[in-house]
Amino acid sequence: MKLRDEHKITPDMFTKMRNLHPRWPQLYGQPKIHKPGAPIRPVVSFYNTPLPPPLQDLHKVLATYLKPLAQNPLCLKDSSDFKQGLECFLDPSFPYHCSLDVQALYTSCDLCLATKTAITSYEQNPGLLPSNITSKTLGTLITFCLDNSYLEFNGCFYSQDEGETMGSPLIV
């Protein structure tokens, strides 16, 4: 409410962050069917999480601000995006194409460095942010979200110590 009252976020944004039916973030697993033995990938569902303002909704709002920083022609959305790129790219001087996967991307990311990088990018390109929010405020909100990543599994609560959980709307 403080950010709304100080006019750093709009009333509409504040409404989007409200959650009237909260629940704890839930841990579940998805099998990696493309890997031998189909190991389980842990994912945290932030759907309807309860922190004031609700973490899931704050993550979503912040993700909309961070999305312009993630625009890169070398990034691929998924396998279909890769296939479509191959079909459009028929340069005979590049006979080989590849796609790389990062092991444990979410949990091995240095989030302090990522947050500083985002803040620096906005300081260098202030037009990417709405006029009512500063890069410092954005950094504070990102840090709040990252410092309050927790989940419930089998009746016990756990905090994410390193990196970010897969499933977080904040990760773009």
Number of helices: 7
Share of residues in helices? 25-40%
From the helix content, strand content and strand pairing, which structural class follows? alpha+beta
Please state the CA-atom Rg, rounded to the nearest Å. Answer: 19 Å
Number of strands: 4
Q: How would the global form be characterised?
A: globular
Please give the order of strands in the largest beta sheet: 1-2
Integer tally of domains: 1
| Low-pLDDT stretches | none
Q: Which sheet architecture does the biggest sheet show?
A: 2 strands, antiparallel
Terminal CA distance reads 26 Å
String of helices and strands: HHEEHHHHHEE
Work out the strand percent: 5-15%
- Overall mean pLDDT stands at 77
Characterise this structure.
By secondary structure, the chain is an alpha+beta fold. The chain has one domain (2-71, 102-159). It is built from 7 helices and 4 strands; from the N terminus they run ααββαααααββ. A two-stranded antiparallel ribbon has the order 1-2. Strands 3-4 form a two-stranded antiparallel ribbon. It is globular, with a radius of gyration of 19 Å. The chain starts with a helix and ends in a 13-residue tail after the last strand. The model has no long low-confidence stretch (mean pLDDT 77).
